[in-house]
Amino acid sequence: MEDKYKNIWEEAEETFLEVLKIATQKQKELHNIGDLAGEELLGKEVISKYEALYLALQEENFEDFSEIQWKQFQETLTEIQKKHQMDSTVLKEKRYLRKKLEGKSGAEVVKRLLEYQQKELEKQKKNIMEEANQILEEEEKIHRKLCEAIQEAEQLQLFERLQPLQKRYAIISEKALDIQKKIDYTVRDIEKKWKFKIYGTISEQKLQETSEEFFKKQKN
Questions:
Q1: pLDDT of residue 179
Q2: By C-alpha distance, which of 86, 69, 66 is closest to 14?
Q3: How far apart are CA 18 and CA 41, in angstroms?
Q4: DSSP labels, 9-53
Q5: CA–CA distance from 64 to each of 1, 2, 51, 77 (Å)?
Q6: How far is Cα 79 from Cα 160, in angstroms, rounded to an integer?
Q7: b/e map of 201-214 (b: 16 or more CB within 10 Å)?
Q8: 149-159 b/e (C-beta count within 10 Å ≥ 16 → b)
Q9: Please, which pLDDT band fits residue 152 given cuts at 50, 70 and 90?
Q10: Residue 28: pLDDT above 50?
Q11: 47-80: per-residue pLDDT in tens?
Q12: What's the rounded Cα separation, in Å, for the pair 57 and 192?
């Protein structure tokens, strides 16, 4: 890719990341004040749209772009920047910072945190599945005894032993589904990259100064 086109690509990446960063911050503010409708609308109208643009930017083969296509791309990019009141000079400074801080920025810290969260969730899932298997084994034993039981009193006792096991298994199954959803969500965040890339223009130290609680979770 020629340098002039590479600059346009990098400008587009920074533009999309900046929109996503601002929108994510605003979404958190809306969540904190209980504006769920506004939070959902922002997710659909802005975050989903620019996430798709960011992912397309990473996947598109720009080597095949013609000069006319690059010109159209630049014009679209300029319109997006105007819509979101972005200064191209500021974006250029952010691109410089991103390159300067590569490998030691907040992005690396957030990525490590997401990976840590995934590992912890996987551990929780493993523990729950082991407990579920133990319950199933216990149920199987009781079912075998039921097949062999002749006296009604004995059968009733076995049924009474089954009920709490079945309730416990239902609770565990629900927890397992919830943990799996969290795992899937975390994996998607890691794969999409922008969730941690938006912190690529801030140093680890600066992130620590502004997010002490964030770093406490990172260390624990």
A1: 96
A2: 86
A3: 19
A4: HHHHHHHHHHHHHHHHHHHHHHHHTT-HHHHHHHIIIIIHHHHHH
A5: 9, 12, 23, 19
A6: 69
A7: bbbbeebeeebeee
A8: beeeeeeeebe
A9: confident
A10: yes
A11: 999 999 999 999 888 888 889 999 999 999 999 9
A12: 12
Residue 216 pLDDT exceeds 90: no
Strand-pairing partners, residue 105, are: 203
In single-letter form, the type of residue at position 198 comes to I
Sign of the Cα torsion 187, 189, 193, 195 reads negative
DSSP tag of 101: T
pTM for the model: 0.81
- The position carrying tokens 């960063």 is 21
Look up residue 113 and give its two tokens: 């945190």
Q: What H or E segment, with its residue span, contains residue 215?
A: helix 212-219
